[in-house]
Q: What sequence folds into this?
């Protein structure tokens, strides 16, 4: 399959049933990864803190995520008197939706990896990475509506805090990827992976990679940027009034976001599906890279303490954003000159 | 294709309902949300026209940045119990007249402009029309000066807004720029420093 043809055209030639099948497979696979990440996180956190972690439910604690989910499902969903019930119901849905939608563009293999008639990705849109930002921009409404609809001051202030964090770091996140886009000369994620055939962009775009990693941690509300749910000091946040599976949905959205950020990092900086071995192994390399990045997420959580809110803001606006802008500028100059 | 028509009508109904909701809902927060719904529907309509870039820009810029600020402001200061302002009878009488005039003017403008898309065959566009690459080269080659002028204007406006806000709220430099966060905005009303509020121990003001 030549890459001169517009990739959108290639995708449109796929049968409709293949597209539906791919959507289902992607959704199911990622849905299975979420409890796995939960378990690995708790196990690893235990090890990092010199304890065992969950080891009672099932062999090696393998059934722990199942127990957690059952617990959440059977819990009562309390709604405060001051709340707006219908909005409390749709806020987690928005969060889950925006998190899952981005999965569609992460490529796990090229056209031809597993068959000549379809690529191992949901869709290959012409706007590429902008698709991820479009849904990332909407993720704000899940948190915001959740906090506002709860009708509680703590939830409201918490959602304002998270929303301010989200929009502050979104800019740095976008600018950090712009360097890669300039270097690859394409927005399409498959073409960006293709451009990394000789070497990974983490080498030439190391600054961009660092900025992306930091901003990605902030975007997913992960430690050390987990101000939105700093249970120990800030009465959690937008999700304070949520119980049962609605809380579980917010929680799941966070983990899916982690997977998405890891997937984008693997695609944009770590060579995507490229790896030794036959082309049929491509998705395996991609999954391994995502898994590696997820472990890195957890490792950082166990290592770094939480930032103070003003530190978070000044770091995002005064350090990360200028650095990202400079990175784009330097990349553009280098690309034009060479 | 049937699916295309269904999506079009759903998005069109969404866009109209959102636009109506903005002006008809009494709660400003719901008004803003229905504006968001309107913008989302517009993005879907752009997608139906195969201009993915415009749809994404619509989401990133309008739904993701402009409306976010609206939501911030309304959530902080726009209570549901506050009326939007005293009803002036003259406005009520005059409003429909102005709306009708604007409607007529727009109709004339659209039909008079000779837009090809108004034809039953639709506009003729070259392949790749509206792709990110084409929009980029249009902005940076053909319309470089207006593009730069507009961005410079926005920059000046942003700096101006910052200067005005700082002077009015009396946030001096001793407090540090980082203190000017969203919560600080709600707190600092006049030039006086906010009254002592319970601050978590260990957090310096």
A:
């Amino acid at each position: 399959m030549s890459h001169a043809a517009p990739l959108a055209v290639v995708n449109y030639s796929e049968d409709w049933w293949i597209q539906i099948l791919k959507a289902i497979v992607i959704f199911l696979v990622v849905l299975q990864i979420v409890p796995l990440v939960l378990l690995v996180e708790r196990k690893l956190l235990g090890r990092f803190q010199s304890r065992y972690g969950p080891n009672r439910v099932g062999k090696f604690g393998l059934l722990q995520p199942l127990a957690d989910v059952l617990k959440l499902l059977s819990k009562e969903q309390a709604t405060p008197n001051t709340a707006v019930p219908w909005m409390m119901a749709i806020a987690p849905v928005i969060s889950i939706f925006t998190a899952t939608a981005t999965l569609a563009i992460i490529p796990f293999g090229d056209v031809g990896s597993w068959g000549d008639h379809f690529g191992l990705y949901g869709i290959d849109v012409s706007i590429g990475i902008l698709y991820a930002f479009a849904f990332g921009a909407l993720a704000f409404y899940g948190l915001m509506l959740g906090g506002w609809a709860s009708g509680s001051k703590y939830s409201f202030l918490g959602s304002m805090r998270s929303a301010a964090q989200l929009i502050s770091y979104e800019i740095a996140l976008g600018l950090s990827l712009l360097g890669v886009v300039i270097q690859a000369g394409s927005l399409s994620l498959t073409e960006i992976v293709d451009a990394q055939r000789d070497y990974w962009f983490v080498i030439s775009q190391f600054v961009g990679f660092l900025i992306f990693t930091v901003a990605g941690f902030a975007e997913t509300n992960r430690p050390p940027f987990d101000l939105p749910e700093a249970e120990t000091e800030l009465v959690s946040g937008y999700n304070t009034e949520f119980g049962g599976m609605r809380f579980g949905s917010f929680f799941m959205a966070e983990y899916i976001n982690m997977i998405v950020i890891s997937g984008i990092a693997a695609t944009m900086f770590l060579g995507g599906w490229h790896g030794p071995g036959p082309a049929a192994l491509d998705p395996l390399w991609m999954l391994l890279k995502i898994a590696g990045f997820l472990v890195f997420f957890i490792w950082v959580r166990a290592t770094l303490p939480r930032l103070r809110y003003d530190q978070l803001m000044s770091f995002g606006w005064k350090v990360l954003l200028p650095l990202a802008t400079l990175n784009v500028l330097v990349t553009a100059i280098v690309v034009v000159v060479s | 294709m049937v699916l295309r028509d269904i999506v079009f009508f759903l998005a069109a109904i969404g866009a109209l309902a959102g636009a109506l909701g903005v002006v008809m809902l009494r709660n400003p927060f719901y008004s803003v949300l229905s504006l968001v719904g309107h913008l989302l529907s517009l993005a879907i309509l752009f997608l139906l026209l195969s201009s993915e870039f415009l749809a994404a820009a619509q989401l990133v810029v309008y739904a993701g940045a402009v409306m976010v600020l609206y939501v911030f402001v309304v959530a902080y200061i726009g209570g549901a119990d506050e009326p939007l302002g005293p009803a002036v009878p003259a406005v009520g009488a005059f409003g429909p007249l102005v709306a009708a005039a604007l409607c007529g003017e727009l109709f004339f403008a659209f039909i008079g402009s000779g837009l090809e898309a108004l034809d039953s065959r639709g506009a003729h566009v070259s392949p790749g029309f509206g792709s990110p690459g084409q929009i980029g080269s249009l902005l940076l080659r053909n319309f470089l000066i207006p593009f730069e002028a507009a961005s410079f204007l926005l920059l000046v406006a942003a700096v101006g807004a910052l200067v005005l806000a700082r002077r009015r709220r009396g946030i001096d430099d001793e407090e540090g720029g980082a203190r000017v966060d969203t919560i600080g905005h709600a707190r600092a009303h006049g030039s006086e420093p906010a009254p002592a509020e319970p601050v978590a121990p260990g957090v310096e003001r």
Observations:
- Chain A has one domain: 80-337.
- The mean pLDDT of chain A is 84.
- Chain A touches chain B through 34 residues (CB under 8 Å).
